[in-house]
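Example 4.3 (complexes with small molecules)
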Amino acid sequence: MKRAVEEVGLIFGDVGLGQFQISLSHAVERGDYLTINDEAQGRVLCQLDDLRRTSDLNLERADEIGRGDVSTPIHERLLGSVRVIGYRDGQGLVKIPTIPFRPGSKVYRAEEPLIAEVLGLKHRGNAGAYVGLLRNHRLRIELDINQLVQRHVSVLAKTGGGKSYLLGVLIEELLRHKVTCVIIDPHGEYGSIRYPAEKNGASPKFAVEAQGFARQVQEFSPDVSLNPSAKPLTFSLRHIDPRDLLVFMGLTNIKSFLAPLKDLVEAVAATTPEYTVKDLVRAAERGEGAVAETLHERLEYLEQTKILGPKGTSLNELVVKGMATLINLRGVAPDVQELVVARIALTLFDNRKKGKIPPLFLVLEEAHNFAPQQGSVTSSRILKNIASEGRKFGLGLCVVTQRAARIDKSVLSQCNTQLILQVTNPLDLKAIAQSIEGLTDGMTDMIQSLPVGVALVTGGGYHTPLFCEVRPRASRHGGESVRVVEN
Ligand SMILES: Nc1ncnc2c1ncn2[C@@H]1O[C@H](COP(=O)(O)OP(=O)(O)O)[C@@H](O)[C@H]1O
Ligand SMILES: [Mg+2]
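Answer. The structure with adenosine-5'-diphosphate bound is encoded below.
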């Protein structure tokens, strides 16, 4: 069935190659796709970037109307700014005409086949991650999985904007395509991906069936008493240097404790090469004075956490081809979280370089805490390394944050696919505008008022930013239930 071609307005004024103005005769929305018949190239795809209403109403007349005088009518016009997206040339490349359109040319609403062709909305088969539909259309947006893993991803939105939900969608797709994932989950909210979604009330246009991923999900946590669904995550005591040991012990006063702890470890190691935390506790017990007492007490605490053992969790347990490994850090102190993230990231990067583990996707929630723009934390350096070099080794990084302005700029700028949901903080918007190419002022403006469930997608195999209605989850979303438990 062919829809009637709907005329929406006329080009007027000065016409640029990349943008022009139209006077609108029909209602269109910001973001709508339009088309023009170019004399040389045929149909060219454009997008309405901004709308405004002009009128002949001056201040004096407005005052008169305010006093009740309604004798003369107001003449008003609806005008739009349009950006040219382009057409596909003989080789399938997107081009924009080299001569501006003529003023007075008619502008039409674009039809879906043209939109799909120019935007490149095609079925990617085994390489596509179906994340949603082009806003106001039935066209699927499938991100190129190879691009995601090779060229990094950022997911940006304010709290409650839908980051975790969208990431859940992405992880479902990666699991369907048997892509190995490691997910740093500071709030323990991704475990619910094991279970199928309850009735989601979502529109059937998305064609999503409920599905759980229990067989492809495993979970580890340094704190299994708080997170009983997880297996214990442990590190090998002998591979932890005294400085990091202090972090695991929860001691921040390095000046007072580092030297005594070093001495203690060295003395124990000299007599007991296979020493355990228990051996350190015993040695500390024999010490005298306030420092020794604190060390003793904190080592006892460390022993209880069981995070340091003779053998750490092995790489083969942690990374399993085609599975998602959740690192649940719920209830773990922030500096210990940083250390855990640093050690895991380092292990993954080293072993990926040596080809000992399959290519994988490392997801980092609350990324601004692990690679902050201001200052440096334990995990900063390795994450910057992965952002700049991970692609060479098939280690994809996905950073998720509600504070785009607070995450390290060098990390953010390495992300070639951005999934942006509603952002209102001006500093965060500025950081986003600076890190993304091809974002128009109109789009930056629209990011502030995106409804929940609509994302601006840039990269991912597409050459122009797209507004995406995120598809419903097949598995259960975990964000809410966790919040109830934490309260
Ligand atoms: N695409 C979507 N469709 C339906 N509901 C959504 C969608 N995205 C988010 N939500 C809802 O919005 C709320 C916040 O989403 P969440 O992903 O937890 O936000 P964030 O991680 O950004 O803080 C959740 O309760 C979730 O159910
Ligand atoms: Mg979240």
